[in-house]
UniProtKB/TrEMBL annotation:
It comes from Candidatus Kinetoplastidibacterium galati TCC219. Its main location: cytoplasm. GO terms for biological process: tRNA threonylcarbamoyladenosine modification. It holds the Pfam family TsaE. This is tRNA threonylcarbamoyladenosine biosynthesis protein TsaE. Belongs to the TsaE family. The keyword Kinase applies. PANTHER family: TRNA THREONYLCARBAMOYLADENOSINE BIOSYNTHESIS PROTEIN TSAE (PTHR33540:SF2). One of its GO terms (molecular function) is kinase activity. InterPro entries: P-loop_NTPase, T6A_TsaE. Gene3D superfamilies: P-loop containing nucleotide triphosphate hydrolases (3.40.50.300).
C-alpha cells in the first residue's frame, strides 16, 4: 500500500502516466483489472481519461456513469471502462458478461467496484482516491495497492516512476 498526494491535476496526470508506462503491453496475457474507489468527484474518471491518453485514446473519454461501460480498441489493446454507481443490486453486473472480457491485451478499469464486488474479477491494482474538501479542491490523495504477492514489484516500479517524473514539475 502506498499513498501519494495528487492535489494538482498535473500530479494526477503523472500518476496516470506512471501506471500506464508500467504495464508491459507485450506481456498482457490475461486482462489487467484496475479498481478505482473514491467518493463522487474524487477524480476516478479524470484518472482514466489521462491513463487512456498514454495509449493513444485521444477522443473525449466519457464518464460511463450512465452507459455503465465505455470501450476503446486501439493499437491492438482493448480497454473497458465501467462505472457501477447506479447499480441497486450487485447481481446487475452479471448481465454484462465480464468473464468474457478476460482476454489478453485487455485492460479493465472499474469505478465503484464496491457496487458489484461479489461478482467481479480480482483486481491487479486498486486505487483509492480521496479529497479533503471537494468544493475548494484542498487536498487530494491516491492510495495504491496490489493484491497479488507477485505484483509487489509492480507497485514499486509505479512509485519510482511517479517520483522521478514529479521531480521535474
Ligand atoms: N488533482 C486532480 N485530480 C483529479 N481531478 C481533479 C484534480 N483537481 C481537480 N480535479 C477535478 O475534479 C473533478 C473530478 O471529477 P471526476 O468525474 O473525475 O470524478 P469521479 O471520481 O469520476 O466521480 P463519479 O463518482 O461521479 O464518477 C474534475 O472536474 C476534475 O477536473
Ligand atoms: Mg466517474
Amino acid at each position: 500500500m502506498y499513498t501519494i498526494k495528487i492535489s494538482k491535476l498535473s500530479e494526477t496526470i503523472i500518476l496516470a502516466k506512471s501506471i500506464a508506462k508500467s504495464i508491459d503491453k507485450e506481456k498482457l496475457l490475461n486482462s489487467k483489472v484496475i479498481y478505482l474507489y473514491g467518493d463522487l468527484g474524487t477524480g476516478k474518471t479524470t484518472f482514466v481519461r489521462y491513463f487512456l491518453q498514454n495509449f493513444g485514446v485521444s477522443d473525449n473519454v466519457k464518464s460511463p456513469s450512465f452507459s455503465i461501460m465505455e470501450q476503446y480498441h486501439i493499437n491492438g489493446l482493448q480497454f473497458y471502462h465501467f462505472d457501477f454507481y447506479r447499480f441497486d443490486y450487485q447481481s446487475e453486473v452479471l448481465s454484462i458478461g465480464l468473464e468474457e472480457l478476460d482476454n489478453k491485451n485487455t485492460i479493465i478499469l472499474i469505478e465503484w467496484p464496491e457496487k458489484a464486488m461479489e461478482f467481479l474479477p480480482k483486481p491487479d491494482l486498486e486505487i483509492f482516491l480521496s479529497c479533503s474538501d471537494i468544493e475548494n479542491n484542498v487536498e487530494r490523495y491516491a492510495t495504491l495497492s496490489t493484491q497479488k504477492n507477485k505484483e509487489g514489484k509492480w507497485l514499486t516500479n509505479i512509485i519510482n516512476s511517479y517520483e522521478k517524473m514529479s521531480d521535474h514539475i
